[in-house]
Amino acid sequence: MKDLILVSHGNLSKELKKSVEMIMSPQNKIHTLSLKEGESPDEFGSEFKELTSNLDDYVVFADLLGGTPCNVVTNIILSNNLNIDIFTGMNMPMIVGYINSAITDQSPQPVQSGKDGITYVNEIVK
Question: Can you tell me whether residue 106 is helix, strand or coil?
Fold first, then answer.
């Protein structure tokens, strides 16, 4: 499985990793990076570069399209001509689905997994 990097505003990425590990056991190939309040985009970018400096292949999951974590990471990846997948709208079904795909040797479909996990429960239980 490729390494997964979860990037977010605040501690969302760290807490999402913890929640995934409650279901899937500890995941040493999931890394998190949180944009702290008051942290500049340049500082966040430096942390991302440091985190990825020893990774061969990885996928990035960001919390919000157009947000600083996503924008900074996208700019770094594009400016270095890296062939790295970046997904936004990160949620638990997306990450669990990606890991399950790797375990079962299936092609990951993180966008579909994320969408499939969004359901209006009241419609189901009627």
Answer: coil
Could you report the average pLDDT of every consecutive run of 10 residues in the chain (126 residues)?
97 98 96 98 98 95 98 97 96 94 83 86 88
Domain housing 69: 3-125
Starting at the edge strand found earlier in the chain, the sheet holding 30-35 runs: 30-35, 3-9, 58-62, 85-88
Q: What distance in Å separates the CA atoms of residue 125 and residue 40, rounded to the nearest whole number?
A: 46
Domain containing residue 29: CATH number:
3.40.50.510
Burial of 53 (0-12, 13-18, 19+ CB in 10 A): exposed
Collapsed DSSP state (helix, strand, coil) of residue 91: coil
Six-digit token string for 79: 């400016």
Q: How many domains does the chain have?
A: 1
Q: Is the pTM of this model over 0.85?
A: yes
Q: Cα(1)–Cα(28) distance, rounded to whole angstroms?
A: 11
- Tell me how far apart the alpha carbons of residues 95 and 58 are, in angstroms, rounded to a whole number: 13
